[in-house]
Design a protein that fits this description.
The protein is α/β, with parallel strands linked by helices. It is built from 13 helices and ten strands. Its EC number is 2.1.1.-.
Length: about 350
């Protein structure tokens, strides 16, 4: 069964877009789906679509992949009205008006209502029967996006079912922070988290001029699709200079010592422009003496945290974990927002 894609006439009736932006050009979606090449998904695929908005992507995805179940999770009134009008019951696009922003919404639809019940799969492969997609392009959603990345690392929330791939539309400013490589001015704890917990690709971007915000290695590996503002449904009050990006997020099967790793990365990234030899004491009193004794390559101490890969942080975490006099990490109240300015 194929669904009708909402027309521009239908979309023009939406007067409130809640600060979000949506790609609505079917030709661009065709390019994105071709780039995704989802061959590993089984005939039992279930999809959870968070904040689908105008549902152009939702209908095109359903028509192409014909998943066993497709659930729209949309709480905003004008979009809810559109969904009810365009996809009346019974429709292969199931719906819930629960808000993805609230954690209890997922408990309701999975555990209580049993609307969507994914199977649990081992961590040996990307989950082949459950996919999460979403549009969190409102610029106020960055903290929510980072919470979801933390869930990947902690294997909770929707990630408790296995290594669940996510396709997320996000603000360009958030994408550039997440994808920043070591030595980049935008390198932060956010991009270390992305590197540690996921293999993430930059699939698409809405403004060719914004490509300069990404490192060459990211652009070479991802080769993102570029489209223009004329392909978008923009939210009221959203600046024409505000761009969005699509990320393909593939969780890793990591074995990190999460609590010690989080402590080390958080404290060192606050001093991301400071040489390691001078930043070590931030890990606790006596850390400089201890680490300089344990680190065999003295040139390593001249690196700054902003130049380090996640492998570097894993190495430092192992040293920290074996420190007999390390501080109580559960009494740590340092705020990662204290990171050094790159200006």
């Amino acid at each position: 069964m194929s669904l009708s894609v909402p027309t521009t006439g239908v979309l023009s009736k939406i007067t409130q877009r809640y600060g979000s932006q949506y790609l609505i050009n079917p030709k661009v979606f065709d390019k994105i789906f071709k780039k995704l090449d989802f061959k590993e998904y089984s005939s039992t695929l279930k999809v959870l679509d968070m904040y689908p908005g105008p549902c152009v992507q939702s209908t095109m995805f359903y028509n192409k992949y014909q998943p066993k179940q497709y659930v729209l999770m949309e709480s905003r009134s004008q979009f809810v009205k559109l969904i009810k009008s365009e996809f009346p019951f019974p429709s292969p696009l199931e719906r819930t008006e629960r808000d993805p922003y609230h954690w209890e919404s997922f408990i309701e639809i999975i555990e209580k209502e049993k609307l969507l019940v994914p199977e649990k799969q081992p961590l040996t492969h990307i989950h082949n029967s459950f996919l999460v997609v979403g549009n969190v392009t409102n610029r106020n959603n960055e903290s929510l996006i980072m919470q979801w990345f933390h869930c990947i690392g902690n294997r909770n929330w929707l990630q408790r079912f296995g290594r669940v791939r996510m396709l997320l539309w996000v603000p360009l400013s958030t994408a550039s922070k997440l994808m920043a490589e070591p030595k980049s001015k935008l390198r932060s704890k956010a991009s270390v988290i992305r590197e540690a917990f996921t293999d993430t690709r930059l699939l698409a971007i809405s403004n060719i001029a914004e490509l300069k915000k990404f490192d060459k290695i990211v652009l070479d590996e991802s080769n993102p699709i570029v489209f223009g503002e004329d392909s978008m449904l923009k939210g009221a009050g959203v600046s024409s200079a505000t761009s969005i990006a699509l990320l393909e997020i593939n969780p890793k099967n990591h074995d990190l010592d999460l609590e010690n790793w989080d402590y080390v990365t958080k404290h060192l990234m606050i001093l991301k422009q400071t040489k390691l030899i001078d930043a070590l004491e931030s890990l606790g009193h006596g850390a400089k003496d201890y680490f300089t004794e344990k680190i065999e390559d003295s040139t390593y101490l001249n690196k700054t945290p902003g130049e380090m890969t996640n492998d570097d942080f894993i190495y430092l975490t192992k040293i920290f974990a074996n420190w007999p006099f390390k501080p109580d990490i559960y009494m740590d109240f340092v705020d990662i927002l204290q990171e050094e300015s790159t200006s």
